[in-house]
Design brief:
The chain is of the alpha/beta class. It has two domains: 251 residues, 2-enoyl-CoA Hydratase, Chain A, domain 1, CATH 3.90.226; 196 residues, 2-enoyl-CoA Hydratase, Chain A, domain 1 (Alpha-Beta Complex). It is 37% helix and 18% strand. The strands form four sheets. Strands 12, 13, 14, 15, 16, 17, 18 and 19 form an eight-stranded mixed beta sheet that branches. Strand 5, helix 4 and strand 6 form a beta-alpha-beta unit.
């Protein structure tokens, strides 16, 4: 039976319906109209439809809820025009993998919440339900302030907080990768969703995020402040760590999202994707022999050290400008994803302050949730000390890092490059795993560094000596002989001391072994997810 084709010369009801559908789709594609679109571009921002097109594979976006909005009708109930809902959502592919994606349309009512029977996006929205039920990553493109006080007038009453809650947003953190890009001004619910993410990024100069904006701050505190000073990237990313990464442009933000997702599985019931090795796993770098200075207090380039070990060009750093005493990277070894946590001796000598501890906790939880093995490159002299560190809660946050390390279920390798002291050193070991501790010959460890330990333990003997400084140095030299990593290796208290040039082959071999364990444990997943 042949399909009946519509005769173009004989319009009928069916053709009228198709024409009506096309007309309504046209209203949706116009968004908030040419003036509002031009205003968005003048502010240095793309529209939501442009953003989705830039981020996703060409032609892969399939919109859901295209016709949602508010229709204006004449007396005969004929549609005059439609104001589209200020949210665009649907499914798409990023590097060939399906995702659920959505974001506020700032050209329509500033992206504020719109009253419909079912939300397209936002907390409790359809797009979150889609990610949950189909177990695919969720990408939030955030550009809106959420609710507005004018909604109370339309509704006739004010809603109680939590009616439209974050329950699904929280649930997703234990199920699928959730990524948020703050691409405009975010406050209220959208700001909350940005934080309820495994990875978040914002654009320097054109994006801001805060609990409430400048007008509310002025009314509450009597303080005049602009959006950038209140919640720009220098505050939200570099100082507070509210958002993980900053980007130089929206396209840079989209590239960071693609890089992050390339390390992630589709959900917690799958393994992260491996790729063909980009360079030989047996590669031995001579430069590693000289990278750690002979003088124990001199800093060196830990990022360069890590880059020499992992697959060439594979590193993607998370939170590079926050908690800078620790480096957290996603990378690959032999094509397999790994999480790298490395102390940076250029910042506080690598000592763990409160921000570094919070950063390490988030990254450990991220890798544990998505079955990504961890490799610690350790050079930590302990927790940060002093009045500022105590006031900032370095001890409390540091012990939270120790606690989180004690809950890890993923395979973990600890490589001591130089220093590994005290409770901060404990936060680099996984006692639930085989507790594999490797070290370079430059490694040293203990309850606390010899220098500070001698000054405390031998204070009376040092003070009573004719030359206290010489006495202190004498005791330090005597104890340092016992601190040799080779003596610890004799006792099998550190499992292996390796030539620095062997680091890549050794780590790659153990990461390859870990894959079988990870596959076996997939069915046992019961993680709560990553805390914001």
């Amino acid at each position: 039976m042949r399909d009946r084709k519509l005769d173009p010369d004989k319009p009928d009801a069916r053709r009228a319906e198709i024409d009506e559908l096309s007309r309504r789709r046209g209203f949706a594609s116009e968004m908030g109209g040419p003036e509002n679109v031009a205003r968005q571009h003048k502010a240095g921002r793309l529209t939501i439809r442009e953003r989705i097109a830039r981020l996703t594979d060409e032609g892969s976006f399939r919109e859901i809820g295209t016709l949602a909005g508010s229709g204006d009708y004449d007396e005969a109930h004929r549609l005059i025009e439609t104001t589209p809902a200020p949210y665009v959502a649907g499914t798409a592919h990023i590097d060939g993998r399906p995702v659920a994606i959505g974001g506020e349309d700032f050209t329509v009512r500033g992206g504020t919440t719109f009253s419909v029977a079912r939300r397209k996006g936002g907390q409790g929205g359809f797009i979150e339900d889609l990610a949950h039920h189909y177990r695919i990553p969720l990408v939030n493109l955030i550009d809106g302030a959420g609710g507005t006080v004018t909604s109370a007038k339309r509704r006739g009453y004010v809603v109680f907080p939590g009616v439209d809650g974050f329950e699904r947003s929280v649930e997703l953190l234990g199920e699928v990768p959730v990524v948020s890009a703050v691409l405009g001004t975010a406050a209220g619910g959208p700001a909350g969703r940005a934080i309820l993410s495994h990875f978040s990024v914002m654009v320097r100069g054109t994006s801001q995020i805060f609990a409430a904006g400048p007008p509310v701050v002025k009314r509450a505190l009597g303080k005049e402040i602009d959006k950038e000073a209140l919640g720009g990237a220098s505050i939200a990313v570099d100082t507070a760590g509210t958002i993980h990464n900053a980007a130089d442009s929206e396209d840079d933000a989209f590239e960071q999202i693609r890089r992050f997702l390339s390390f992630m599985p589709q959900n917690v019931w799958e393994l992260p994707p491996s790729t063909a090795p980009s360079d030989p796993v047996e590669r031995r770098e001579e430069e590693l022999l000289e990278i750690v200075p002979e003088q124990r207090t001199r800093p060196y380039d830990m990022r360069r050290l890590v880059a020499l070990v992992v697959d060439e060009g594979s590193g993607f750093e998370v939170r590079p400008t926050y908690g800078r005493a620790v480096i957290t990277q996603l990378a690959r070894l032999g094509g397999r994803p790994v999480g790298v946590i490395a102390n940076d001796p250029k910042i506080y000598g690598g000592a763990m302050d409160a921000d570094a501890a919070r950063k390490q906790i988030h990254f450990m939880e991220l890798c544990d949730t998505f079955h990504i093995p961890l490799v610690f490159f350790v050079d930590v002299p302990g927790f940060m000390v002093g009045p500022k560190a105590e006031a900032e809660g370095a001890l409390r946050e540091g012990m939270r890092a120790v606690y989180t390390a004690g809950q890890l279920t993923v395979p973990t390798i600890t490589l001591v490059v130089r220093k590994c002291y005290g409770m901060a050193g404990m936060a680099t070991c996984n006692k639930n795993d085989i507790d594999l501790k490797l070290a370079w010959p430059t490694g040293e460890w203990g309850s606390l560094p010899i220098e500070g330990g001698v000054a405390a333990a031998f204070r009376r003997e040092i003070d009573a000596a004719p030359d206290p400084k010489a006495k202190e140095q004498e005791i330090e030299a005597e104890l340092r002989a016992y601190a040799s990593p080779f003596r610890t290796a004799e006792a099998f208290a550190v499992e292996e001391i390796i030539d620095p040039r062997e680091t890549r082959p050794v780590l790659s071999a153990f990461i390859a072994l870990a894959e079988g364990r990870l596959r076996t444990n997939l069915g046992k997943h019961d993680k709560a997810g990553v805390a914001p």
